[in-house]
Amino acid sequence: MIEPATPRDEARRLADLHATGLLDTEPEKAFESIVELTKALLDVPIALVSLVDKDRQWFKAAAGLPARETPRSVSFCAHAIHEPDIFVVEDATFDPRFHDNPLVTGEPFIRFYAGFPLQLPSGYRIGTLCAISPRPRESLDEAGESRLRMLGAMALDAIELRTKRAALARAQATIERYGTLMHSLGRPVAFADPTGRIETCNAAFALLAGDGMDPVGRPVVEALGLPPGAWAPTAGTGRPVQVTRLDGAGLSVGFSVHGTPDGYAFIGDRPEA
Fold first, then answer.
1. CB 15 within 8 A of CB 97
2. Which pLDDT does position 248 carry in this prediction?
3. For 41, phi and psi rounded to 5 degrees?
4. Is 192 within 8 Å of 176 (Cβ atoms)?
5. Packing angle between helix 142-184 and helix 29-42, nearest 10 degrees?
6. Most confident of 125-129, 162-166, 210-214, 261-265
7. Looking at residue 206, what is its pLDDT?
8. Exposed, middle or buried, 38 (CB in 10 Å: 0-12/13-18/19+)?
9. What is the pLDDT of residue 273?
10. Start-end ranges of CATH 3.30.450.40 in the chain?
11. How far apart are CA 176 and CA 25, in angstroms?
């Protein structure tokens, strides 16, 4: 058996995976429906939405397999995330990467595997939608590949929709928690999620966006026109941030950054010309 290699920039890939909030969550109809469709359309007994974590692969949805996770070291999906498109193993017993893999020599006795990599907009592949059979078979035909890509796109859409709903829920909770105080202050205030993306802000903060665009939904560094490296989520809290308007108004604002249960708060001084 050949264990899967570690992708380049694995720390960023894992960060993007964890940021989805999918790991160790309850079953959800959207993902359960996708794996059931995969079973039916590709005529396989097992289909999974598999997420490749640091030391394990965890199944957001599993049809035909009772396990919720397996070690990453024996994961077919951990091989598949290295590929830009569908990864196929026609008969694992004749493949040197898998012939003595415990998932081949024991339950579920994998022979055939086809996995579509789930690639986020950032470019990182966090897992796969995969079809598995204990019977060897030839590589997917053109129609089969098209179906798997279509189903994989559905899984990615479900991930994106879930992520947006979670972000909206966090933003609403932030507004409820801090909204009255934030909007009563004359100084600029914004609340950002753990990645530094603005979830809500008051009018004083919105005025600082030099390009006139709504800051909500944008990284705080972009919204304020900060130079590269002025602040990043990895810098945490307690780091001062100085902002100078880039639109010719000549306003200079100092911000203090504070941790919150949901990310970061940026609290500014009153602008000085």
1. no
2. 46
3. -75, -25
4. no
5. 170
6. 125-129
7. 85
8. buried
9. 46
10. 10-164
11. 25
DSSP string, 119-179: E-TTS-EEEEEEEEESS--PPP-HHHHHHHHHHHHHHHHHHHHHHHHHHHHHHHHHHHHHH
Number of Cα atoms under 13 Å in the Cβ half of residue 246: 13
pLDDT attached to residue 246: 46
User: Percentage helix, strand, coil, to 5, in the chain?
Assistant: 35, 25, 40
Q: Is residue 17 within 8 Å of residue 57, measured between CB atoms?
A: no
Return d(Cα 30, Cα 38) in angstroms, integer.
13
Dihedrals φ, ψ of 227, to 5°? -70, 155
What residues contact 272, with CB distance under 8 A and at least 6 apart?
A: 251, 252, 253
Domain with CATH 3.30.450.20 in the chain: 185-268
How much is the mean pLDDT over the chain? 87
Specify the pLDDT at position 266.
83
Q: List the beta bridge partners of residue 254.
A: 242
Q: Under CATH, what is the fold of the domain 185-268?
A: Beta-Lactamase (3.30.450)
Mean local confidence (pLDDT), 148-171: 90
If we measure between CA atoms, which residue out of 259, 210, 220 comes closest to residue 239?
Answer: 259
- 73: helix, strand or coil: helix
69-71 and 87-89 beta bridge pairing: unpaired
pTM of the model: 0.68
Preceding peptide of 117 cis, ω within 30°? no
Q: Helix, strand or coil for residue 49? A: strand
CATH number of 10-164: 3.30.450.40
